[in-house]
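quick one, two chains, predict together pls
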Amino acid sequence: MTADPIPIDSNASIEDALTKMADAQVRRLVVMGGDGVAGVVSLGDLAIRSADSAMVGRTLAQISEPIRQPLST
Amino acid sequence: MQLKEIVTPNPHGIQVDDSSRHAAEQMRRHGFGAVLVYDQELLVGMVTDRDLATGCMAAGHDAGGCMVRQ
């Protein structure tokens, strides 16, 4: 299980979500609405709907960068 | 376009004490690659198809025999 998934507001834009995914290096965000959890949005969902395919590509590249701290073994 | 227009509704999720098999069943039933994990009503995490492979099977466990909290 991935603990503490990253939340984002349901009123945020696709571009906001792509930026948040890139910064956090995650492919899915938990979308929060007025009554709590509204659902999940994935990088794939955004790739289908985004008009900016170059930004989607940059986001995927940044997510795929090696993480800065080595995984514990 | 706002996220509320494209979000994949997934309000139910699974409980932290459920098995990895239950998580996989929910993914197949709903066609998702991830399900949300709750401790009672509190959202505590997310489990993905990748988590099942790398966190359960790669650790030598039976694919359905892990607990979601792992």
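Chain A touches chain B at residues 1-5, 8-14, 17, 28, 30-31, 33, 37-42, 45-46, 49 (CB under 8 Å).
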